[in-house]
């Protein structure tokens, strides 16, 4: 890693206001993504990964709000920018695709218009030019017969085609960072493979960095170069994806890697009982004291129940937040 | 493993013969201009006692339609379903209760499939009452026993679904499916709505219950890792038909149909940065299925023969592995093509 990072998140905290009190939905989040890099944020529902992404593009809305920390895009603090300056970043320099393209797309507008809008809003093109560019965009995400498809409404397209349209919109202005929040969770595996390869190739060609958010550690480890694992509002481990499956350091990451049946493991090792992670994911209003994984952790001791662990640098490279890390 | 056909076999608890479910679409009042969606079109399956049969395929391949037909919730257009020696297709409506005592279902989403206004006790007692269990003590006993079976405490029976976590709700869903002591349980994506760190608990529970209660499972899932872990046999569906059916190890180690190969190759390998193998294209429109083999427009091995009628038939090899592909022998002859594409260790 050389040069200045594209985006840098430092000690970010996000609060949830539940009416009577403020509870931390995410805290102490720090990571950086360099130009053209692929970075993954992995965790279960409610761990804070999606709200972290929304904070990056200034889309957090009450009851959620940033309560501390700094987000810098090319060295500039995003929170200090005017609303207009933030808007010109969003969609233009930082773009986002969502899990369910049917709800993210406008159902009453032809998809071509929704792509063309990007060129009109951010690049000052006329609608005539923008419509032509929309056809080219659809062609670049390999939608067949793009000149006819631009007139289609979202409901006329399959799930995979809709996600291609989302990618075309997101990449229309040549953003520096693409945030992909569970981009393939609603899709079949064969379609997932298509969408992931499309996203990966287009971003590599254009030097676009990817922040990929998913619950699927296997997919993220395959797509991204570095991975951060979140649990109950904190990043518990950040590693190169080459290491995260081979030598996970945090007990939660170890638990995840061990608990999932991986293709080929039964044939190689026979069917044994899966290793379970005991207990349940804590509710956001009820995060435990100390290390938030301690009630589910087999290695927990007294210190884990009282003091939140600091982030330690691993000799093998990477960061971990655990009192007893390997 | 061989599958005796056309005679009674005590090992077999469920036989599906030539099942077809067609849905009418559009058309005038008299049916002019009506089109038919062939959701399931000629499926043969058998499930043995104590076996877990994995049913895989993309959305729209007909997996859930097969499941609903077995449960008696859809009336087949054609074909026969034999459950525990009884033909259940074309049954009288009164037989519905008998069917419910043989086959039950665990649903995908434990948030949507439990009545939020009913306590767990009520959810578990109702089926017992409907099926003629009236003694209060017996009902209480059976509810308590079932809750213990699924890893919940009998004291929790007075609570409502919202008081439980997702994993616990799925345990309640499993308890509801098992309360009538069915012989077959259809699990439709039983873990995909759950948090990743909870899935192993539910998979282990389902496998344990299968052994202790002597159940047979049909396991519908798009997660091939889960299917491989749980299944004894696997059937792969594509556009309403079975394209491959065999022992789990055969299916995962030597997949013979190009579609099965594509499904396996599309799974990301977490240990490697390699590109995912892509198939090209979406599932074809079931209202306008392709000529010949339904997979031919997406198949890298397709030749002229594949694009013409009649399409390939499901051919069962001597080892019981069945494949619906004109060219599977030739493709297999070219060596471990699938594994070189997918990059799996």
TrEMBL record, chain A:
Statement: the UniProt record of this protein carries the keyword Zinc: no
Topology of this chain in the membrane: Peripheral membrane protein
Domain (ABC transporter) ranges: 7-257
A cellular component term, taken from the record's GO annotations: plasma membrane
Main subcellular location: membrane
Alphabetized UniProt keyword annotations: ATP-binding, Cell membrane, Membrane, Nucleotide-binding, Transport
Gene Ontology MF: a single term: ATP binding
Database matches in InterPro entries: AAA+_ATPase, ABC_Ni/Peptide_Import, ABC_transporter-like_ATP-bd, ABC_transporter-like_CS, Oligopep_ABC_C, P-loop_NTPase
Stored CDD domains: ABC_NikE_OppD_transporters (cd03257)
Protein family per UniProt: Belongs to the ABC transporter superfamily.
Function summary: Involved in beta-(1-->2)glucan export. Transmembrane domains (TMD) form a pore in the inner membrane and the ATP-binding domain (NBD) is responsible for energy generation.
Full protein name: Peptide ABC transporter ATP-binding protein
Organism from which the protein derives: Bradyrhizobium forestalis
UniProtKB/TrEMBL annotation, chain B:
Location relative to the cell: Cell inner membrane
InterPro entries: AAA+_ATPase, ABC_transp_ATP-bind, ABC_transporter-like_ATP-bd, ABC_transporter-like_CS, Oligopep_ABC_C, P-loop_NTPase
Catalytic activity: glutathione(out) + ATP + H2O = glutathione(in) + ADP + phosphate + H(+)
Enzyme Commission identifier(s): 7.4.2.10
Membrane topology label: Peripheral membrane protein
Pfam families reported for this sequence: ABC_tran, oligo_HPY
GO function term, MF aspect, one: ATP binding
UniProt record, GO biological process: peptide transport; transmembrane transport
UniProt domain ABC transporter: residue ranges: 14-264
Tagged with keyword Transcription: no
Any single GO CC term annotated in Swiss-Prot or TrEMBL for this entry: plasma membrane
Keywords for this protein: ATP-binding, Cell inner membrane, Cell membrane, Hydrolase, Membrane, Nucleotide-binding, Repeat, Translocase, Transport
Assembly description: The complex is composed of two ATP-binding proteins (GsiA), two transmembrane proteins (GsiC and GsiD) and a solute-binding protein (GsiB).
Protein family membership: Belongs to the ABC transporter superfamily. Glutathione importer (TC 3.A.1.5.11) family.
Job of this protein: Involved in beta-(1-->2)glucan export. Transmembrane domains (TMD) form a pore in the inner membrane and the ATP-binding domain (NBD) is responsible for energy generation.
Protein name, UniProt field: Glutathione import ATP-binding protein GsiA
Species per Swiss-Prot/TrEMBL record: Bradyrhizobium forestalis
């Amino acid at each position: 890693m050389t040069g200045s990072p594209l985006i840098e998140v430092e000690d970010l905290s996000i609060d949830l206001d539940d009416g009577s009190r403020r509870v931390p939905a995410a805290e102490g989040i720090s990571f950086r993504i360099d130009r053209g890099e692929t970075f993954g944020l992995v965790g279960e529902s409610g761990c804070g990964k999606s709200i972290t992404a929304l904070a990056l593009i200034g889309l957090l809305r009450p009851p959620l709000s940033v309560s501390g920390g700094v987000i810098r895009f090319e060295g500039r603090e995003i929170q200090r920018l005017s609303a207009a300056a933030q808007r010109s970043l969003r969609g233009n320099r930082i773009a986002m695709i969502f899990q369910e393209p049917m709800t993210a797309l406008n159902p009453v507008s032809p998809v071509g218009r929704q792509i063309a809008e990007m060129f009109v809003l951010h690049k000052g093109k006329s609608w005539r030019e923008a419509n032509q560019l929309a056809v080219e965009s659809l062609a670049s995400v390999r939608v067949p017969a793009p000149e006819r498809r631009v007139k289609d409404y979202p409901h006329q397209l399959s799930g995979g085609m809709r996600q291609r349209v989302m990618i075309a919109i997101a990449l229309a202005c040549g953003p520096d960072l693409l945030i992909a929040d569970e981009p393939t969770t609603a899709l079949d595996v064969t379609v997932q493979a298509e969408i992931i390869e499309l996203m990966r190739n287009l971003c590599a060609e254009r030097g676009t960095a990817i922040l990929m958010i998913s619950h699927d550690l296997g997919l993220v480890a395959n797509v991204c170069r570095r991975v951060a694992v979140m649990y109950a509002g904190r990043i518990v481990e950040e590693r190169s994806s080459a290491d995260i499956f081979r030598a996970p350091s945090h007990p939660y990451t170890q638990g995840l890697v061990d608990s999932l049946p991986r293709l080929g493991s039964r044939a190689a090792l026979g069917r044994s009982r899966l290793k379970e992670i005991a207990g349940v994911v804590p509710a956001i209003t009820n995060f435990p004291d100390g290390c938030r994984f301690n009630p589910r952790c087999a290695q927990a001791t007294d210190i884990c129940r009282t003091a939140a662990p600091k982030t330690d640098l691993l000799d093998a490279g990477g960061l971990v937040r655990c009192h007893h890390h390997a | 493993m061989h599958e005796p056909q056309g005679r009674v076999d005590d090992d077999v608890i469920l036989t599906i013969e030539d099942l077809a479910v067609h849905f009418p679409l559009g058309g005038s009042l008299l049916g002019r201009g009506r089109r038919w969606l062939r959701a399931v079109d000629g499926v043969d399956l058998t499930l043995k006692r104590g076996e877990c049969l994995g049913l895989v395929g993309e959305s729209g391949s007909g997996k859930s339609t097969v499941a609903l037909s077995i449960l008696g919730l859809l009336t087949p257009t054609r074909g026969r379903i034999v459950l525990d020696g009884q033909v259940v297709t074309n049954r009288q409506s009164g037989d519905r209760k008998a069917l419910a005592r043989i086959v039950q279902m665990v649903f995908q989403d434990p948030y949507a499939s439990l009545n939020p206004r009913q306590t767990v006790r009520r959810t578990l007692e109702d089926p017992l009452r409907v099926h003629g269990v009236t003694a209060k003590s017996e009902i209480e006993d059976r509810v308590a026993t079932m809750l213990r079976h699924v890893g919940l405490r009998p004291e929790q029976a007075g609570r409502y679904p919202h008081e439980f976590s997702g994993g616990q709700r799925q345990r309640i869903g499993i308890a509801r499916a098992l309360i009538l002591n069915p012989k077959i349980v259809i699990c439709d994506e039983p873990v995909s709505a759950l948090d990743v760190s909870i899935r192993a608990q539910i998979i282990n529970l389902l496998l344990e219950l299968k052994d202790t209660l002597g159940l047979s499972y049909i396991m519908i899932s798009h997660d091939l890792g889960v299917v491989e872990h749980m299944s004894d046999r696997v059937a792969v569906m594509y556009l309403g038909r079975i394209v491959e059916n065999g022992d789990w190890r055969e299916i995962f180690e030597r997949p013979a149909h190009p579609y099965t190969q594509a499904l396996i190759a599309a799974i990301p390998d977490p240990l490697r940065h390699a590109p995912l193998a892509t198939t090209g294209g979406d599932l074809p429109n079931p209202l306008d299925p392709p000529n010949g083999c339904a997979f031919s427009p997406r198949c890298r091995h397709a030749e002229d023969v594949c694009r013409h009628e009649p399409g390939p038939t499901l051919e069962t090899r001597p080892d019981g592995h069945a494949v619906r592909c004109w060219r599977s022998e030739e493709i297999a002859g070219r060596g471990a093509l699938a594994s070189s594409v997918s990059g799996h260790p």
